[in-house]
Amino acid sequence: MKLKKYRQNYEDFVIEGEKLVTEALLENVYPDLLIATADWLQANRRSIPEAVQVVETSMADIEKISSLSTPQPVLALMKKKEVSINTIDITQKWSLALDGISDPGNFGTILRTADWFGIDTVLCSNDCVDLYNPKVIQSTMGSIFRMSVCYFDLHDYLASCNLPKYAAVLDGEMLDNHIWPEKGVLVIGSESHGISSKVLATCNHAITIPSYGKSESLNAAIATGILLHDIKR
Amino acid sequence: MKLKKYRQNYEDFVIEGEKLVTEALLENVYPDLLIATADWLQANRRSIPEAVQVVETSMADIEKISSLSTPQPVLALMKKKEVSINTIDITQKWSLALDGISDPGNFGTILRTADWFGIDTVLCSNDCVDLYNPKVIQSTMGSIFRMSVCYFDLHDYLASCNLPKYAAVLDGEMLDNHIWPEKGVLVIGSESHGISSKVLATCNHAITIPSYGKSESLNAAIATGILLHDIKR
């Protein structure tokens, strides 16, 4: 199938639906190929740069290649963004580090939440889910085009990083009018195992969101949202 | 199939996995039927009350009836809890109202988050996803057994309720050292459409979580977590 050939040849990934395609174009991240129905193209012609290769097709054909339960009239092939450890600079801002987040919906929601709070760099351990997993892409709601996400040995990186590092844990200092520094790294661990002991050992602070009920833990994305809101407020 | 017969006859629902079964037993919510492997039963015999009917079976049989991608050695049939509008009293505490939350994972995560912050009553519009949807149950992580969740005409209920009602919206008063009252209702709307205009009209306050980036909105469960943390802090 043509779509698969493209994806293999050019290291592309697929985005589906008006929301993601519009966000990509708004961020000047241009698709290698845009596939849409005649109706969609007519309504959106002015927002598609001339350089973008466009294929007009039927809704029936889109339904054949879509991975969504409710296919949408537009999808696009995008080039993957290479982010290497050498191209990021986290020394002047707050960043997020994710240790072993494996659920694609959670991972995408974390990126979307980080974007809301102005975080643009996310450091991931190698066992986090792939950024280009379709469920991750969909749940970022477009934030994927505004963020630098890189995968590496998180322990080695954090061990050599001089910023304050805050670990979100279940048995740390209670978050209660905490005075946050102006820059640092917030470290979020996997839901089932938490932050790995090696990565935790690199952190200077362990912080806990107070509980008033009986549930054992908070979802990792919820904890990220609460902590980033507190850091930025 | 036996499982289906039970479910139809007794208005039961199925919970799967050690985490959910253990949480139910801890809350003294006893299954109508507990189905488990011999190994699991041997290891957990002491935590199963005598009144509970137990069926020992093989992992192969559990795999046949499980709806999980990774079946677990225990599942149980539970009776649905009837919560009517007349049995709840929200006048002395904070409660949560959900208007049109249709994503099961989101809905379950919202219940789990509410439980963390000590909220035990959740008011739902009739177009929210069903509480007993399997994905909802799994993502509550057991909080479902500690909460009263009821479905009704949310507009009528809120219109006749004299508590302060706070709507989470994208264009309201910025959340910034807000002084929250001691009791009230936090209203969260669907991600695609927000709070319906009818329900919004019943609210006394409209509040917004400040953004520092470019993403258009926050996930409904993340917004719930941030607001409940702020209310309870």
What does this structure look like?
The structure is a homodimer of 233-residue chains. The first copy, chain A, has helices spanning 2-10, 18-26, 38-44, 59-65, 104-116, 134-140, 154-159, 197-200, 220-232; strands at residues 12-16, 33-36, 54-56, 74-79, 94-99, 121-125, 148-152, 165-174, 184-189, 205-208. With 233 residues, chain A is α/β, with parallel strands linked by helices. Chain A folds into 2 domains: 2-79, Ribosomal protein L30/S12 (60s Ribosomal Protein L30, Chain: A, 2-Layer Sandwich); 85-232, SPOUT methyltransferase, trefoil knot domain (Alpha/beta knot, 3-Layer(aba) Sandwich). In chain A, helix 5 links the parallel strand 5 (94-99) and strand 6 (121-125). In chain A, helix 5 (104-116) packs parallel to helix 6 (134-140) and helix 5 runs parallel beside helix 9. Chain A starts with a helix and ends with a helix. Chain A binds chain B through residues 105, 109, 112-120, 141-143, 146, 176, 209-219, 221-226, 229-230, 232-233, and chain B through 105, 109, 112-120, 141-143, 146, 176, 209-219, 221-223, 225-226, 229-230, 232-233.
